[in-house]
Amino acid sequence: MTGPNDIDAIRAAFQTDLAAVANEQDLQTVRDRYLGRKQGAVAALMKSMADAPPADRPAIGKSANLLKREIDLALATRKETLEASTRPAGSVDVTLPGREMPFGRRHPLTLIREQVESIFGTMGFEILQGPQVEDDYHNFEALNMPPDHPARDMQDTFYLDRPMPGVDRTASTQPATLLRTHTSGMQIRYMENHQPPVRIIAPGLVYRRDTPDLTHSPMFLQVEGLLVDDGITMADLKGTLVSFLQAFFDTDIRVMFRPSFFPYTEPSAEVFISCVFCGGDGCPVCKKTGWLEILGCGMVHPAVFEAVGYDPERYTGWAFGLGIDRVALLKHRVEDIRLFYDNDLRLLEQFPH
Ligand code: DAH
Does the pLDDT value for residue 165 go beyond 70? Predict the structure, then answer.
């Protein structure tokens, strides 16, 4: 007859046997004695249940199962302490799985910038870095935008030394400092210190007082391009940009140049690519036009050459400004520019290391 007393007796006997365990072999002996499928005490207990009155069987079965789990756990714990005590103090358990190191990765915009740099790099362009805190002269004035030029309004500016209301900044003897609104100032900075031929790109962060929305962020990335030499024409500009865009988007996209205006280029153009979403058929992203605008460009204005001391009668050149965020959005089909600046790992982890 099986009863609670048998269970208690087995538990007590197990405790005594367990306390006497000195090594792995003892442990195995105890395991066989209590949990062995055929000879084990718990197995015998289960078998003897058949003789118990049917009404008692569920309760006995339950306690027998509990006892089995209890013994299992106690054996596992003893096994661990045994293993720990056989290891020399301070040694490392080389069988433990390694701890995974969290990997950082480059930001998707960094990857795009590096790709732009690599394509222009193979075309022989030098890659420049420039200051994000810029002065009025390089950001505007030398680019043919004198203080009251209306084109300044196209780029709402963060001034770092905004004068008191009512004070005329243009009358100040101190040039204003600001967060650069575009990378175009790098054209001036480079030409001030180098003679033609010029072949540079200047990627970097720029800032504008824009309210963030799907397509605007107050901080974003641009890349400026500038090429100056004897006899440079708009055909050079077109050929370079078409080659770049086809390499970058890695498909046979079509490129369209449309007349535009920038104070520092004449003539100026806006460049569109056939929509990467619909292939040019028309969709919501391209507003049914089939085209997406991605950069501004043109032939360097003679006034810019004069500002840096180049002879506009001798040299010609072209320049462009491309939105890195813009092409990154198109390439990765991300629909909200703000996602690039949120640092949400769910987005960032989708890009390669
Ligand atoms: N600076 C312009 C912008 O931020 C882009 C641009 C247009 C750059 C024409 C150029 C250029 O160099 O020639 O919108």
Answer: no
| Structure token digits, residue 332 | 């990765």
Tens of pLDDT, residue by residue over 234-282, are 999 999 999 999 999 987 789 999 999 999 999 999 999 999 888 889 8
Q: Hey, is 28 helix, strand or coil?
A: helix
User: What residues line ligand 1, using a CB cutoff of 6 Å?
Assistant: 182, 184, 224, 262, 265, 296-298, 319-321
**Contact 186/130 with Cβ under 8 angstroms?**
yes
The rounded distance, in Å, linking the Cα atoms of 124 and 160 is: 36
Report domain extents, the chain.
Answer: 4-85, 108-348
Test site for ligand 1: of 138, 152, 240, 297, most ligand atoms within 8 A of the Cβ? 297
Contact between 255 and 275 (Cβ < 8 Å): no
Classified as helix, coil or strand, 24 is helix
Which backbone phi and psi does 321 adopt, to 5 degrees?
A: -135, 120
Query: For 186-209, what is the HEC assignment?
Result: HHHHHHHHCCCCEEEEEEEEEECC
Phi-psi group of 204: left, alpha or beta (phi > 0 → left; psi -120 to 50 → alpha; rest → beta): left
Tell how far the Cα of 223 is from the centroid of ligand 1, in angstroms: 9
Measured in angstroms, how far is the CA atom of residue 320 from the centroid of ligand 1? 5
- Which residues are within 8 A (CB) of 98 and not within 5 positions of it... i.e. 6 or more apart? none
Residues contacting residue 99 through CB under 8 Å, at least 6 positions apart: none
Residues 6 or more apart whose CB falls under 8 angstroms from that of 3 comprise 52, 56, 60
Do residues 231 and 316 touch, judged by C-beta distance below 8 A? yes
| CATH top-level class of 108-348 | alpha beta
pLDDT digits (tens, 9 = 90+) for 70-92: 999 999 999 988 888 877 777 78
CA nearest to 204, candidates 220, 215, 218: 220
